[in-house]
Amino acid sequence: MTTVEKTYEELFRERADAVYFSPGRVNLIGEHIDYNGGLVFPAALTIGTYAAVSPLEERKVEMYSINFPDDGIQTIHLGGKVELQGGWTDFIRAMTAVIEAETGRRVHGFRAVVEGTIPNGAGLSSSASFNVLIGTVLNAYNELGLDQVTLSKLAQQAENDYLGVNCGIMDPFAIANGKEKQAMLLDTRTLDVSYAPLDLQDNVLVIMNTNKRRELADSAYNQRREECKSALMNLQENGAPAYLCEVPPEMLEEKAGHLSKVEYARARHAVTEQQRTKEAHAKLVDGDVDGFAKLLNASHQSLKQDYEVTGEHLDALVEAAWAEEGVLGARMTGAGFGGCAIAVVKQQGLQETLERIGNTYQAAVGWKPAFYVTDIGGGAGKWKGEA
């Protein structure tokens, strides 16, 4: 029996009807180019958000979070004007509102105990995981018939329209549509997707947490978007190309004189990261793990030098990984300025390798990182794991 099921029985004196799971996600490569018309390459993780659930006939949700025990059982009444309270229950209000608007249906609620296993502030999409979970449960118990792509769009809309988060489609899409042991090459404009096997052979994917919260990420994100928009305008002729990632490399070099130094650097990252993302997909399809890992290194260098979003802590952690013979490649992942990096690490001697990386990083910044060796899992839905 899972932790959420046990807690559900203790709190509500009945057995839960079912357990649902919504994963976190990691972006393997293709960073800061989704808003420039580029491709992203995320994968769903086996860490995420669990919920033991039973349906209710009433239009309310009763929920207890193992992560926030002091909050007790929260009751959220559904329908009417959405009035945000400033806590985790707002995700329920927001997701319910967009689902009712989409379907024209008045939904019934549910009773649940939830637990998230994604570290807060790590940039692995704990909020999108929770949002997609709420949508998945409402969809199932109200028999709404929403497909996974629609759930992704509604989860994004809930964050954009109600929760004040200017997120893109990648996070909810990867969480709702993930496939076990596979990464997805996603066109964020068309939502066309191509899966590739994430078979790392004798290596594992390690998520490395700097334990530095992403304090500058939001302001830097908005600034980079403006710099990219300005670069595109100075490169366009008659409105073409429509996106920075559609600019051919030779065109960027020919028109470099039309750009400021900063605009050129931002554009160069977008153009080259787009190419690296396509190559990464091809490398995994071909089973070329070494080639894939080298692209991670090049991505980090571009994010450091051209896009300037890495920062002291991510650079220290990635460089500590690069120094290890057992590491094939590593890079920052997510918005930057803290959060996580990823590394492809040889299985043999793994713990010793991670210990040395941790010691090197601690010597540089003054505290230890955290490491998560996680598998690539499937998308949100009814939990299929062992009890």
UniProtKB/TrEMBL annotation:
This is Galactokinase. Residues 282-354 form the GHMP kinase C-terminal domain. HAMAP family: Galactokinase. It comes from Bacillus daqingensis. Its main location: cytoplasm. Residues 93-178 form the GHMP kinase N-terminal domain. Residues 7-55 form the Galactokinase N-terminal domain. GO terms for molecular function: galactokinase activity. Belongs to the GHMP kinase family. GalK subfamily. Substrate binds at E31, H32, I33, D34, Y221. The keyword Kinase applies. Catalyzes the transfer of the gamma-phosphate of ATP to D-galactose to form alpha-D-galactose-1-phosphate (Gal-1-P). Pathway: Carbohydrate metabolism; galactose metabolism. Mg(2+) binds at S127, E159. ATP binds at S65, G121, A122, G123, L124, S125, S126, S127. InterPro entries: Galactokinase, Galactokinase_bac, Galactokinase_CS, GalKase_N, GHMP_kinase_C_dom, GHMP_kinase_C_sf, GHMP_kinase_N_dom, GHMP_knse_ATP-bd_CS.
